Structures are given as C-alpha cells and as structure tokens.
Q: What sequence folds into this?
C-alpha cells in the first residue's frame, strides 16, 4: 500500500535529531530544541511548506525517542521501519507492510485529503480488516471494527472505540505462510506430527508478531491523533470546572 509519490523519504529518527543511538534524554532534549528552533514554520516564512514537513518529522522523532517504551520498540524494529514497503516476500505473504506507517513521512497534514493523516490511516486499518475478512469462511458474519472516522468526528462517537478495538487486536488469520515444512513430504506419521507441531509453533509466532505490530501502530496513531488532543483538553477543562464548583459549594457551606 503506497501513500503516494509525494511521500518524503523515511529517515532514521536519530538522524533526524542529529544524535547518536546512545543519546541520553538530555541529549535528545537539546537536539530537539535546536532543530525545532531552526525548522519551526514561523521561522521559515519563505519556505513554510518544507519547514512544516521537517518540523513534523522532528517532533515525531522526539516524541518516539523521548518515550523509553517507544524508543526500545523503535530500536528493535528500526531496519524494518526504514525499509518499509520494499516489497519483500515476507511482506507479500502477510498482505501488508505496516512498518512503513510508523513514520510521519507517510502522511501530509491533518486534513481529510487523500494524503492526509486521516485518509492514510483509515485506509491502513481498513486493509487490515479486509485481510481478516478474506480468510473467514464463506457465509460467516463479519463483525467489522468501529469506524476510524474523519478529522471532525467527535472522539467519543467512534475514534475512542476504534482505538480500543485495535489496541486489543487479535488476528483470526491462519498465517499458514509461516509453515516451515510441508507435512505431505513426511515419510511417516510420526514425522508428520512433528512437522505439524513445528508449523503450528511458527504460525503462532507469526500471529503474535502481527498482533503486536497492529496494536503498536494503533497506539502510535492515537498518540498523534488531533482528536484525542482536543478530547484530553476538554476532559481537563471539565475536571477544572468540577473543582471550581466544589470550591464554591465549600465556601457557601463554610459561610453558613
């Protein structure tokens, strides 16, 4: 699945910030501030479009590397993410390369345009679901996941349920392409059972890896979803309103 010809080349997140792979939290913070100051769109009036994209890339790099859990996962999958979408046999067997979407370069802006955040990720998760549906038995009812929605979709009217579904995703696909051996080549029943056992183990490993990648991608996307930011601000404001009401009630009570 391609995001279009205009997609920026994926760069290593350490390269984006100009730091070494063993950079400390302080190193990352200093590098981010320096790069952000240089490439902030407000500082690049003559080159706003490019600056906006580079600033987004810088922000994404710092967001990932400043989070110990995200950084550890990125470090262990860095080559796959940078290589994402190269059309290898493994990707073809699975039906979709998800690693290419762990990058801010695969979308442009936060609108509903074809190359925007919402269209790109809506299509990704729709494809994941289509692959799941494709392996279901004919006549089986397909329980579709909640809708990803669009840029203006209120958080509680779809997106919250969508992320809950995919952050707990469990594939129903067989992952038969992970089989190491062909049971039909076994010379006897004992070896055939051993082969089937090995194949089952390999399929399970493939399923677990795919589940983990889908869940990680859902969390990655949610963290960058502007609708969640708006919802969190609304929730924080609601908490403040409730506190103010409690304080007013206490003052009235104490004044009696």
A:
């Amino acid at each position: 699945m391609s995001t279009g010809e205009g997609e920026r080349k994926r760069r290593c997140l350490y390269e984006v910030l100009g730091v070494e792979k063993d950079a400390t939290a302080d190193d990352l913070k200093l590098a981010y501030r320096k790069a952000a100051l240089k490439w902030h769109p407000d500082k690049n009036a003559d080159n706003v479009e490019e600056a906006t994209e580079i600033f987004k890339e810088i922000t994404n790099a710092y967001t990932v590397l400043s989070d110990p859990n995200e950084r550890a996962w990125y470090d262990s999958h860095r080559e796959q993410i940078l290589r994402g979408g190269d059309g290898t046999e493994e990707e073809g067997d699975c039906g979709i390369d998800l690693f290419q979407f762990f990058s801010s370069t695969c979308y442009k802006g936060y609108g509903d345009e074809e190359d925007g955040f919402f269209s790109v990720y809506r299509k990704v998760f729709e494809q994941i679901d289509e692959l799941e549906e494709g392996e279901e038995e004919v006549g089986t009812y397909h329980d579709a996941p909640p809708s990803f929605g669009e840029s203006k979709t209120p958080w509680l009217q779809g997106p919250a349920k969508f992320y809950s579904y995919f952050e707990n995703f469990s594939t129903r696909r067989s992952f038969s392409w992970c089989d190491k051996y062909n049971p039909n080549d076994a010379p006897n029943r004992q070896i055939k059972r051993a082969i089937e056992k090995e194949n089952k183990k390999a399929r399970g490993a493939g399923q677990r890896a795919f589940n983990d990648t889908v869940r990680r991608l859902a969390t990655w996307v949610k963290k960058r979803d502007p609708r969640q930011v708006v919802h969190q601000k609304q929730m924080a404001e609601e908490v403040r309103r409730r506190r103010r009401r409690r304080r007013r009630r206490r003052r009235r009570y104490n004044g009696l």
Notes: The chain has nine helices and no strands. The chain has two domains: 1-84, 107-229. The first helix runs from residue 13 to 17.
